[in-house]
Amino acid sequence: MNNNILALPGYRMCEYLLVLHPHEELRNKIMNTKKDFASKFESPSAEKGAPHITLATFSQLQMMEDRILNRLKMIAMAMPAFKVELKDFGSFPSHTIYISVASQAPIQMLVKSLKAAQSLIKTKEHKPYFNDNPHITVARKLLPWQYEKGWLEYSQKHFTGRFIASDMLLLRRPEGVKSYHVVQKFEFMNMPVVTTQGKLFA
After folding, report:
1. Which branch of life, at top level (predicted)?
2. Which CATH architecture best describes the domain 26-187?
């Protein structure tokens, strides 16, 4: 594939992010936590990015988007809405501090459904990432001192919150672009969806 073809809109490689998003009141509460961390531990990047739970990330040519949207719509239609419980903090030593998700089972079930569609979203160069440990990031890419001091404090802190996940959002960022934009919202409908497993997008 030559560079002239790659310059055409449909052949542009894009990064995609599939997420669950809390309601506005809870988003504001989480943003206050992120801002507090940013000012205490000199981590301005903690203030960036809307709070969300990542379900999957992947890269794919933009020309594949319609097929991906159709598949994600089918997966969402079969999924019932569910309650997400947030409780306290966790960490990935030695670089990330996050808000823990207490109710992981329904999210992991959704991620399992997404994994079944991965033939559509993986490429030779890019393998999709599926999040088996749902959480909401407070701060990431921390320096050792930021992590150590931050975790010393946040391991003792408490946080509670809950929201009903009634849909998921797909966001897109074309290669070379800094910010993500929402492509589509997929409502969870709890409807029986009949497909031939593996043959829908063979």
Report:
1. Bacteria
2. Alpha-Beta Complex (3.90)
